[in-house]
Amino acid sequence: MRIDPAELGAERIYRLMTGIVVPRPIAWVTSLSSKGVLNLAPFSAFTFVSQKPPMLAISVGRKGADYKDTAHNILDTEEYVIHIADTPLMNAVHDSSVEHPPEISEVEHLGLETLPCDLIKVRRLAAAPVAMECRFRQCLEFGEAKSRLIVGEVVMFHLRDGLVNNGKVETEALDPIARIGGPRYARLGEIVTLKTVFQTPKSKD
């Protein structure tokens, strides 16, 4: 089967790509509007781009002719929190993807408890096993759809007790959820451990 992307609109290409690039980790992002409204939204075009300093990237699309509230908030305040959600939070993650007017807080609408961050004004979700306080560093715009790739530096990690063992996160204990095509999500399933291969050390520590 051959599909020519030049013959497809943005929405059909999006459906195709989100079914191919799977599973995708989900960045569950809290951000603060200039009017003080705490916004919450999930983004599955998400990865890390640097380890020193730690930097994460999310791709934020548009809703109609305008950018999503998260992009506006991050560019306005330059602070936000990226959470990793576990299985018990799956429904809340999905429900937070509903588009509300900017004056509506998804956090309040869903009844989610928050905690203050250490270094930024944006609050973090108490129930999430991982929360990363971020400061905005760079924004790049791509394609005809003008998706914004937003890169931020993690200035503080918050991890649930028991998740880290000898400096590494216990993935089974984290139990993260992933996004696949459409309103569908996945868990990790079987984890396969292969033999360690040699890699040049990334740093002296």
TrEMBL record:
Keyword list, A-Z: Flavoprotein, FMN
Pfam families per record: Flavin_Reduct
Cofactors demanded by this protein: FMN
UniProt keyword annotation of Flavoprotein present: yes
Record InterPro entries: Flavin_Rdtase-like_dom, Split_barrel_FMN-bd
Residue ranges occupied by any Flavin reductase like domain in the UniProt entry: 19-171
SMART domains associated with the record: Flavin_Reduct
Domain of life the protein comes from: Bacteria
Gene3D superfamilies assigned to the protein according to its UniProt record, in alphabetical order: Electron Transport, Fmn-binding Protein, Chain A (2.30.110.10)
Family named by the database record: Belongs to the flavoredoxin family.
Identification of the protein by name: Flavin reductase family protein
Organism: Bradyrhizobium diversitatis
